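JOB MANIFEST
job_type = single_chain_structure
chain_count = 1
residues = 347
[input]
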Amino acid sequence: MKISSYEITDFFNQLALLTRSDLPLPKTLQQMAQDFSSKPLKQIVAGLGEATEKGKTLSEAMRDYPESFKPLYIRMIALGEREGTLPDVLAELSRISRLHYMLATMIRDIMLYPVITVSVAFIILMFICCAVIPEFGKIFDELLAGEPLPEMTQFVFWVSRIVKHYINFFIGLYIAYIIFVCWMFLIKGTANKVLLFLVRKFPFSEVVFYNFSMARLCTVWALMARRKVPVEEAFPVIAEVMDFPQVSDALNRIAEKCGKGEIFLQALKVEGDISKLLIMTVENSPENNLPDELDKLAELFRERGYYGYRRIGMTWEVMSIASMVFVVGIVIFFIFLPLIARMFSGW
């Protein structure tokens, strides 16, 4: 049973607020379960309430739902329980999961316009091939009286005949495409991974993922640094929640080197996938102030990510429209090419 990033964020946020009151945790969870509309979330929260009522801690109860609660969440909640700062930890985890949810939402937003453009272009091209081009063929037969057509025009007519002859195949292909798109946008899990993979192949998208990954790294690291979690223990856990594989690998390498006794700053500096700005911040910040500086840096990376997201959205919109206009325009130009050539030859 798995719940979405938005539901995780809402759960942590509400629980952070309610745990600041004097209400016992089991009763708090049972009350929350009644208020949620999502059936999976309702069942999970009710299960957490039953488990804590039987004597388990919240972190121990969450281990029964590994698909919904990442090891990072469980680890930090356990620290909060031990330190007596559970409400604060829950509030920070809500902020971290909100960042993940916002990234997933933005991925869908920036993919939506190109997908719509491709869908419309496909319909327009099928209509032109099946209804418009054959009519021009009749006109050319009457008007040009058997004169040979330009090669590109002949190619367009050949494509038109193929599409018209196999129209059922192309309709089926289009339906399969629509089903695939709906699966990507509406289904979670594997669909999210496929969508993420496709988006990262688009131009200029890598910088957005990198900045949001660095923002998440700074936010989670600040959370763990406040609780004095050693780097060799913190970084492997943080690596599990990264959306940027290179950053995840870098964190694991740093943790491994620190575990073998290498100085942390030296291990950090040799990793080219870690932002130089982050390295400078770590190098010039006193240890006691590092969590606050990391929070400030996380905000900077988020702003960079939002700016990149807006720029990519505009770029993809322009590229989608330009591509559709170009393809349709080229087809129409080659249809009219014999008439244009005849007109100019008459001059």
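[summary]
DSSP finds 15 helices and no strands in the chain.
The radius of gyration is 28 Å.
exit_status = 0
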